[in-house]
Structure to design on (408 residues):
């Protein structure tokens, strides 16, 4: 290792531990001296570089990070809250939609469902009878009137027909009760003139402000019922 | 979460001094150096999960800091003027000979071209090897060694060309 090479190596890294460098130092005292000089210089440089670090810098760094991550945490919490609120609103809307929107799209389907629902409540051979007067009293709410009684009226009561106030009449039929609904006209349910399923069939008569729906089992003559109703009912408007 | 906090605090405590000194020698201004260190550690916090090897933490932080420093130049180039020599001297009263010499040497180091002083600071202050420095500064190792050689050479020459102060020191 020549002198220039040695000097370059020491200058570049005074703590050079290369075998060549160490050997050169041991072989030549002046090289050893030079290396020591540069080591001293490095110590001085080291001392000079040790500028004082501002007091409390590490605390400041930790504080700033804590604040920053707290901000992020807060922002995240806000996002979570917003998400939860959205989910709650959507849930509420869905519930609302499912509960209060009609599951049936036409009069017939709803009428059938209604009749099935209350099937157990009426027996065909019930002794009680509702008078024409009390029936007409109830019909007054729909501005309607029956001029004479037809069939044996077992029950007459207001009920909810897909959320609308309507009159629910149950007549004695041949084998099972015949149900007649007086329902105000409504946009939601499509008018269905006739409808049926395995057991029951029915038909609707359209009047100016109301529909009258007859549901009976298949032994009845719907036509007869329709005719009776059409002939006796009068509307005051 | 807690372990991340602990890791971060350990990182700050262990390395903030070195990093501040490095920043100081990069920009020669105390306030700017402090800002750089703050910014660096904040970025480090965000990316702490990407630091897998704790041994590499120092060079990782220095890399972030160098990037921050470069960004500072992009942001406010117009504010960057030639640094005043007054800025690089520390304000501590110069009392002992040791401090006098430190003070004098600081000026010399500050006057070195940055491409010479940076490897020197990394080597002396950071304790990095030639290879490490080459990787950090994106240079090849021979270039780094040459720059280190020139940096020390210039400092030594400056030291020897200062007979008055040397005389005071010696005698």
């Amino acid at each position: 290792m020549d002198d220039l090479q040695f000097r370059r190596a020491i200058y570049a890294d005074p703590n050079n531990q290369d075998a060549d460098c160490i050997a050169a130092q041991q072989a030549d005292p002046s090289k050893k001296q030079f290396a020591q000089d540069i080591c001293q210089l490095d110590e001085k440089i080291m001392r000079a570089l040790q500028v004082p670090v501002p007091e409390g810098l590490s605390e400041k760094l930790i504080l700033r990070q804590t604040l920053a991550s707290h901000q992020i945490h807060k922002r995240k919490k806000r996002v979570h809250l917003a998400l939860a609120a959205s989910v709650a609103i959507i849930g509420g809307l869905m519930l609302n939609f499912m509960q209060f929107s009609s599951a049936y799209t036409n009069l017939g389907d709803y009428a059938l469902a209604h009749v099935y629902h209350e099937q157990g409540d009426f027996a065909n051979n019930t002794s009680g009878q509702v008078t024409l007067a009390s029936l007409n009293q109830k019909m007054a709410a729909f501005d309607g009137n029956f001029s004479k009684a037809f069939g044996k009226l077992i029950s007459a009561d207001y009920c909810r027909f897909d959320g609308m106030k309507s009159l629910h009449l149950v007549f004695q039929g041949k084998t099972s009760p015949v149900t007649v609904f007086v329902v105000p006209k409504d946009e939601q349910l499509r008018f269905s003139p006739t409808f049926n399923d395995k057991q029951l069939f029915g038909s609707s008569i359209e009047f100016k402000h109301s529909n009258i729906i007859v549901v009976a089992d298949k032994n009845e003559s719907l036509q007869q019922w329709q005719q009776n109703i059409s002939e006796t009912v009068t509307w005051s408007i | 979460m807690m372990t991340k906090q602990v890791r971060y605090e350990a990182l700050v405590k262990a390395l903030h001094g070195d990093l501040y000194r490095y920043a100081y020698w990069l920009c020669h201004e105390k306030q700017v150096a402090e800002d750089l260190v703050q910014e660096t550690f904040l970025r480090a916090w965000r990316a702490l999960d990407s630091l897998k090897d704790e041994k590499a933490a120092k060079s990782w932080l220095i890399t972030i800091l160098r990037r921050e420093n470069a960004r500072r130049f992009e942001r406010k180039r117009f504010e960057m003027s030639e640094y005043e020599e007054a800025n690089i001297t520390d304000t501590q009263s110069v009392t002992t000979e040791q401090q006098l010499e430190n003070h004098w040497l600081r000026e010399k180091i500050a006057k070195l071209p940055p491409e010479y002083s940076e490897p020197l600071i990394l080597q002396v202050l950071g304790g990095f090897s030639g290879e490490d420095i080459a990787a950090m500064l994106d240079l090849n190792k021979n270039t780094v060694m040459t720059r280190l050689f020139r940096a020390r050479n210039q400092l030594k020459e400056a030291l020897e060309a200062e007979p008055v102060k040397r005389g005071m020191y010696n005698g």
Q: What stands out?
A: The interface with chain B takes residues 8, 11-14, 38, 41-42, 44-54, 57-58, 60-62, 64-65, 68-69 of chain A (CB under 8 Å).
